[in-house]
Amino acid sequence: MEVQETRQLTDPEPSGEAHPFVRVFTLRDGTQAVVRPMQPEDLPAWRAMLEACSPQTLWLRFECHSLPRLLADAPQWCLPKLGTQWVLVAELLAPPRIIGEGRLCLEPHGECGEFCVMVADPWQRHGLGRFLTDCCLELATALRVRRLVAEVLPENARMIALLQSRGFGLHKDAHGQVLFAERRLDHFG
Ligand SMILES: CC(C)(COP(=O)(O)OP(=O)(O)OC[C@H]1O[C@@H](n2cnc3c(N)ncnc32)[C@H](O)[C@@H]1OP(=O)(O)O)[C@@H](O)C(=O)NCCC(=O)NCCS
User: Fold this and answer.
1) Distance of alpha carbon 178 from its chain centroid, rounded?
2) pLDDT at residue 83 in the model
3) Of 84, 110, 139, 174, which one has the greatest count of Cβ atoms within 10 A?
4) Residue ranges of the domains in the chain?
5) Pocket of ligand 1 (CB under 6 A)
6) What is the pLDDT of residues 61-97, one digit of tens each?
7) Do 86 and 139 touch, CB atoms closer than 8 A?
8) Per-residue pLDDT reduced to its tens digit, 147-170
C-alpha cells in the first residue's frame, strides 16, 4: 500500500476552503487509482462498476441477487445526501473507470457512523478494500464520529478478516444471520 497524497479533509486552503478528500493508491500490480468523493455525474461509471461485479460480490454488499434491479436503483445510490452520507469512489484514470467505493453514513446526531466498502471483482485482492476501509476510518475520525459500525454476512471471510485487522469487535445478531462490527473512535476524550 502506498499513499502518495495525504491532504487532510479539514486542512484549509489559503482561501479558507477545505480540501476535497483525495488520495492516490497503488494497486499490487502497480496500477494507480484515485480515491475521491463521488459526483452525480459518476452514475454511468458506477453502474459499470456493478456490471463488473460477480453475483457473489453484489450479494455480499447489497444482499441482492438482481443486477437489473441494482442498476435501476443506481440513481438513489449516487444521489448526494449532504451532511449524512459520504461516498468515496476509487477510479482508474486511463481509461477512466470506477472500481470500488467506500460509503460512510452518519446518524442524525453524528456520533455513530456506519460504513461499507466494495471492490469490483477484477480489482479485488490488490489491497484496495483495506485502503478504502482506512479512508472511511480517516473520514469518520475527521468528522468526529465516536462509534463506527458495519454489518457483514457471516460467510464474508475477507471482510471479517479486514475488519478484525482494523480493530473492530464483532458480534452476531439474535438469529446469527448478520455480524455487527463495531469500533470506537474515542480519542477525542
Ligand atoms: C471485502 C472486500 C471489500 C475486500 O476488498 P479487497 O480489495 O478484495 O481486499 P484486500 O485486498 O484489501 O484485502 C483485505 C484483507 O482481506 C483479508 N483477506 C484477503 N483475502 C482473504 C481470504 N481469501 N480469506 C480471508 N481473508 C482474506 C486479508 O486480511 C486482507 O488484508 P491483507 O492483504 O493485509 O492480508 C471485497 O472483497 C469486496 O468488495 N467484497 C464484496 C463486497 C463486500 O463484501 N463488501 C463488504 C460488505 S460489509
Assistant:
1) 19
2) 84
3) 139
4) 23-184
5) 57, 60-61, 116-119, 124-130, 150, 152, 156-159, 161-162, 165
6) 999 999 999 999 999 999 878 888 999 999 999 899 9
7) yes
8) 999 999 999 999 999 999 999 999
Phi, psi (rounded to 5 degrees) for 73: -85, -5
Cell numbers of 160, please?
Answer: 471479517
Beta strands in the chain (DSSP E): 23-26, 32-37, 85-93, 96-106, 112-119, 147-152, 169-172, 179-184
By most ligand atoms within 8 Å of CB, the mutation choice from 162, 166, 177, 179 for ligand 1 is 162
pLDDT at 104 over 80: yes
- 16 alpha carbon – ligand 1 mean position (Å): 38
* Residue 178 predicted with pLDDT over 60: yes
Q: What homologous superfamily is domain 23-184 in, according to CATH? A: Gcn5-related N-acetyltransferase (GNAT) (3.40.630.30)
Q: pLDDT, tens digit, for every residue of 112-141?
A: 999 999 999 999 999 999 999 999 999 999
Identify which of 96, 98, 77 has the alpha carbon closest to the alpha carbon of residue 87: 77
